[in-house]
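TA notes, week 10

Several of you asked for a full example with nothing omitted. So below is the full record: structure tokens for the whole chain, then the designed sequence directly under it. When grading your own attempts, check the secondary structure regions first.
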């Protein structure tokens, strides 16, 4: 479990305990407690991780597209390179996350593509 996932799990546990405590004190109606508990469950329930990956993939792709459009409109943004971010790395990461969000590769061709993208990303992060 990543540090972020651990923090979210702890926050949810604390919120649930606080809700249970408030119900015990009679300061919140059971209906309100159940509604809040359902909201907490929705945040951590099935599909949340896949949606989070899809959101991150969309963000990475959006950043890359923005950089491409900026280059197309204005040219080089830096003296030594065309882009201020790694467009290829962002797009590759977006592709990887999009495949993760759908539950993994759908066929052998996509699995080979996914493996190639993962190798590329592994190589690009080693240089950092």
């Amino acid at each position: 479990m990543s540090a972020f996932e651990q923090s979210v799990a702890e926050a949810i546990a604390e919120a649930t305990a606080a809700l249970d405590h408030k119900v015990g004190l009679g300061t919140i109606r059971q209906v309100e407690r159940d509604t809040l508990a359902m909201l907490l469950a929705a945040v951590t329930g099935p599909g949340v991780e896949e949606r989070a990956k899809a959101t991150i993939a969309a963000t990475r792709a959006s950043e890359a597209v923005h950089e491409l459009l900026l280059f197309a409109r204005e040219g080089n943004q830096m003296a030594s390179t065309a882009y201020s971010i790694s467009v290829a790395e962002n797009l590759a990461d977006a592709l990887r996350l999009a495949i993760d969000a759908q539950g993994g590769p759908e066929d052998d061709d996509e699995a080979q593509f996914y493996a190639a993208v993962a190798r590329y990303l592994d190589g690009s992060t080693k240089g950092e």
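The chain has a mean pLDDT of 79. Use that as a sanity check on your answer.
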